[in-house]
Amino acid sequence: MPGLKHERACLPPVAGVDEAGRGPLAGPVVACALVLPAKSVPRGIDDSKKLSAAERARLYARLTDCAAFGVGIVEPGEIDTLNIYWATMKAMTLAVDRLAEVLGCAPGHVLVDGNRLPRWGYAATAIVSGDAHSRSIAAASIVAKHTRDQIMIAAAESHPHYGWHANKGYGSAQHLAALREHGPSPLHRRSFAPVAQCILPF
């Protein structure tokens, strides 16, 4: 389980940052920046990918009740303009900016999942597999993942062909088959190869 070693080595308040949705063919990329409370931290916080949807939902409710957090969302059109790497960096920046508004000050330090940092003025450290090593990053991963999943479940009601309620925009067999049959929706990332291949030339 991720611990607090990295948090304890940094100037507080320490924010963990993670994103969800780099790989899907549709939907936004979502990032969360989160500062855990000093006490009464929910039990069971772990890398969101290791948790069931029900466990993520439970922890999301607990975390958004007790922690300070900010969420950043970059939509598919901007992903196509920026590319997914820079869109992810923007989502993280938006998340930390929003967290700073909530806190009323900049975080003392930001722990970011991955090996790269956004171009920002915050004191920060990138941690490879950070959601496995930092409890703050793991908590942020839960909020980001649950937030994005709910966006895709809601979007599935308007675009039922693609099975987003189950695949959340990832390239499952059902999703790819629906893309070939129906073409892309407004929520698809047209710069991603499987989507671009289904756009008919004029």
TrEMBL record:
Domain RNase H type-2: 12-202
Catalysed transformations (reactions): Endonucleolytic cleavage to 5'-phosphomonoester
Compartment annotation: Cytoplasm
An example Gene Ontology molecular-function term: RNA-DNA hybrid ribonuclease activity
Pfam families: RNase_HII (PF01351)
Cofactor: Mg(2+); Mn(2+)
Primary location class: cytoplasm
Gene Ontology process terms (BP): DNA replication, removal of RNA primer; mismatch repair
Record keyword Nuclease present: yes
Keyword check for Nucleotide-binding: no
Residues the record lists as binding a divalent metal cation: D18, E19, D113
EC number, UniProt record: 3.1.26.4
Superkingdom classification of source: Bacteria
GO cellular component terms, semicolon-separated: cytoplasm; ribonuclease H2 complex
Cross-referenced PROSITE patterns: RNASE_H_2
InterPro entries according to UniProt: RNase_HII, RNase_HII/HIII, RNase_HII/HIII_dom, RNaseH-like_sf, RNaseH_sf
Keywords: Cytoplasm, Endonuclease, Hydrolase, Manganese, Metal-binding, Nuclease
Textual note on the cofactor: Manganese or magnesium. Binds 1 divalent metal ion per monomer in the absence of substrate. May bind a second metal ion after substrate binding.
Similarity comment: Belongs to the RNase HII family.
PANTHER family for the chain: RIBONUCLEASE H2 SUBUNIT A, RIBONUCLEASE HII
Function: Endonuclease that specifically degrades the RNA of RNA-DNA hybrids.
Protein name: Ribonuclease HII
Lineage of producing organism: Bacteria, Pseudomonadati, Pseudomonadota, Alphaproteobacteria, Sphingomonadales
Gene responsible for this protein: rnhB
